[in-house]
Amino acid sequence: DVVMTQSPLSLPVTLGQPASISCRSSQSLVYSDGNIYLHWFQQRPGQSPRRLIYKVSNRDSGVPDRFSGSGSGTDFTLKISRVEAEDVGVYYCMQGTHWPPTFGQGTKVEIK
Amino acid sequence: EVQLVESGGGLVQPGGSLRLSCAASGFTFSSYWMAWVRQAPGKGLEWVANIKQDGSEKYYVDSVKGRFTISRDNAKNSLYLQMNSLRAEDTAVYYCARDVLKGACDYWGQGTLVTVSS
Q1: CB contact under 8 A, A49 and B95
Q2: Smallest Cβ distance to B108: which of A48, A96, A101?
Q3: Which helix (H) or strand (E) holds A68?
Q4: pLDDT digits (tens, 9 = 90+) for B7-39
Q5: Which one of A12, A101, B83, B86 has the largest count of C-beta atoms within 10 Å of its C-beta?
Q6: What is chain A's percent helix, strand, coil content, to nearest 5?
Q7: CB atoms within 10 A of CB A65
Q8: Interface check A24 vs B, CB under 8 A
Q9: Model confidence over A54-90: pLDDT tens digits?
């Protein structure tokens, strides 16, 4: 299985400051069709996961533009330009290129 | 509004069986792949299985292969997960999700807790 490694696993951030989460895959995530099926999910405390970004950099409807995704090959990043209180939660990267789909361990974002 | 509502979770003894259901509404259920994803208490997310629109293709993670069966009834807008030979390590919240693009699940249910314990 493809191993997804996130860092850091814990990210204390000051309100209004930027945050960055790294996600690395054990294999290239480029699919045979040329697409990269790397997605990001947010799970707020006590809630179900919510998709934020799909295929590396496509932000979902309703997701604030302070969230952005980037990367290629095996190295990906989720950035929050200015952290707000509602951003507290656990963030997961996930690859769908190879079977089975696999998730990173999760990065817990908290306010300092 | 898209809604996915899971049910059927509960406490079951090791070796026992349980059937989870997911009632879908607010979209054309028969047009989408669907998936089950689980989360052990305090742990991360784990893909369990998914199923094609017409049920003709089903895929399972190795840890549940041969024990779990995913199915759907498009006439009832429902997704199912039959879980047999349950083990303690199957204890988790099970989420039903709409799989729109190779794992890019855009809608998730609230989850149903399955506890395997004697």
Answers
A1: yes
A2: A48
A3: strand A67-72
A4: 999 999 999 999 999 999 999 999 999 999 999
A5: A101
A6: 5, 50, 45
A7: 7
A8: no
A9: 999 999 999 999 999 999 999 999 999 999 999 999 9
